[in-house]
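for the record, two folds in this file. i put them one after another cuz i was lazy. first one right below, seq on top, structure tokens after. the second one comes after a little note so u can tell where it starts
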Amino acid sequence: MRYSFAAVSYHDVFFTAKSLSCVSMCIRCECSDNSGMREYIRTAVCIMAGAVLAAAAPAEEKRVSITYSGDRSYTLIERTDIRRYDSGRYTGLLSRETRAFISPEHSSGGGSSYSGNFFVLEQTKSGGKKTAKGIDAVVPVSFTIDESGVMTVSSDSQYPEYRSFPSFPDKPVQEGDSWTGKAERCVDPRGTGQFTRIPILIEYRYVGEEEYKGERVYHIKAKWATRYGNVVGGSYDPAGDPDLSRAMGTHDADIMVRKETGETIVIRDMLDETFVYSDGQTVAFKGSALFFTEFPPAINRGAIMPALQKIATIKETKGESKPEGMGISDAAGESAPGGYTDAGERETAPGGFTDRKSLESALAADSGGQSSDKPKNDIVVEETDAGLRLSVQNIRFQPDSDQILPQERGRLDDIARVLKMAGNAQFLIEGHTAAVGKPSGEQQLSVERARAIARELAARGIDAERMMCTGYGGTRPIGDNSTNEGRAQNRRVEITILENK
């Protein structure tokens, strides 16, 4: 007996997604006298068709709640590689980097509070030589972030550049769902120091859960338009740059946030925007900005402190915070330590203390038991809000030069050995001079000497890109410039092991 089936297609089977039951099937059997076999075939085909269609039917999407609950220190790095056009003329490919070291203050029902410093690094050409970074500015910040990602900046600062970005939906989402969020961006296209705040409305779309560098993350896409001034939908900042007439452009970003906490891991922003000024000049940018966050562990104090005690005097009390979060004053240039004055005078007195009483107290507390005023190896170590700081005295240079004398090799070897124990930490190298000559000359010489110290440390195995150099010339004295001892105190280099606490 031979059986055959009529052509069976999806149109021949009617079912519901919930029951996945077959409603009807048309089967033809050449032998009409075998009703039992006909029923068996009908049932078998119905089951097979139902199984095929059930497998093809989409499963119910998993919904996730994305919220912010971060409460730990982090390092934020922003790198931009953009093509700049001034009034339509291409003026070059520019690279800018900003590093922020942020620590939590406290967490409450109102969100997580943070404070720290943004280090704005010197602008460089793309593909530049790997060297220690110079610092254009240091900007102190404080802010809170609530569970939806909304940021409230309590410090009057142009950083962070983006506020409330990303922000999260107020209900669970599944793949493909979208939401909108308000944010704010601070811009200074001409680099004049006059920042303008531009409100932005961002459209987000949830892509799904993924793995990124060993972390489970939520992948989110975002896009928005720049609209400012006399354009449709434009806003206006009364405290912004009065010469900025309008701005327009587009942004498309990919965002990865940590699944457990909503902390941003990485943002890649592709931008194309133009700023128009009242004099008719335009500044346009095309390219990308990359933001990524790292969560480095604290340095191993148990190992590093004994090593420091062998080469330096440890100041037991916590050092005072630097004015305005270590910011550079308007008159300050970069500087580095000067072992000699412009006339070739060698420094002989220790520094790092505001008066002799505090110096004597610190020396008495030092485990080395020194009784003189001179710190061990002319190095004093103290705690600061930014991390452990080594204040190094009397580094000897050739007069009016950045050439370090051979006598310093041993001390630099000791310092490099300790810095290597700080893991992947980054280092801030700050130079100070006595005010004994022309400020511009002191600043230029100190720039060269700061970089000389970084080069010496790099030659001893410290990654050059982990060092940032800045300085203050004679603008931050800790001693009296009218005396030899005071001037000697003012000539110093400070190396801070930047630490997320």
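(here's the note) second protein begins now
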Amino acid sequence: MSNQSSTGRLVMNHSTHIPGLIPILARLSKHQGIQTITPGVIGQVRGHTPRLTLRVSVPIRGGFKLLARQGKTVQEVFVITSLTQPELEAALAVAQKLK
């Protein structure tokens, strides 16, 4: 069929994001196999996470939902990808280390 782009697309449909999240998602979007990354709803949670952390939450159709947490704030991030969960977790670890 057609040639696929080597980088994914980062959708910016919200005006607010957890501080520091967008640069990590931009690095993740450059990973082979990532097609679309869409930051979602921001909410408040119990507990406190001092540093920004991202983790794979649940599979969704065509990819995975991630949860980004910092302080008492959580933000959903939807990733459409052909990667498996362990491959996505490895790509996410690399994207978070490069600051």
